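Cross-check.
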Amino acid sequence: MSGLRGQVALRQQKKEVRVRQTASDDTPTAAELPKPVSALALRRPARPWRRFVVKLVALALIWAVLTDFRPDALVFGLPAVIAAAALVFVLPAAPGWRLSPRGALEFALWFAVQTVRGAVDVAARAFAPRMPLAPGFRAYAPNLPDGAPRIVFLNTITLLPGTLSAEVAGAQVIVHMLDTEADLDSDMHALERRIAALFGLTLSNEVAQ
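Predicted model, tokenized:
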């Protein structure tokens, strides 16, 4: 009888040992334990209300300057400004770009010089007896990244006399020129370098060189 009780007790001890081993195997180690989540990670993404207000004020000022602050222009301008600013609620936030103060100063000076040179060239062609004009379209593949740098590049082409960014076809921009025999690639490279310096960027083709 005592031998039977001993066997039962031995089996019970073995069962408890197996249960403890299984529990210890299932217990995660310190490395496996989940790390505490910081308060920053739990913070919800910032609502776009701030971006909406900033864009609303900026667009309203631009519209007011373009319309000479005429009150009657608000009939069309106010709905357009509100609709444009409201796009921040449906479009993803664009990557932030940091402007370089030195690059901005150099770009402004370069743009002023190029504007004067271009205007003089266009005027000379217009008043020349033979009208040395060869208008047409040329394609150029910019190296600037998408976003603000590419937008500034396209708008600057249009603002400079003698050129116009007519269309964006895939990775290329179609430029309308008064003289298709001019060195477009050299001019566009110079413009890209100025815009890259404006945003503190390094062009891929310059890195390869």
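The radius of gyration is 33 Å. The first helix runs from residue 2 to 26. Passed to J.P. for a second look.
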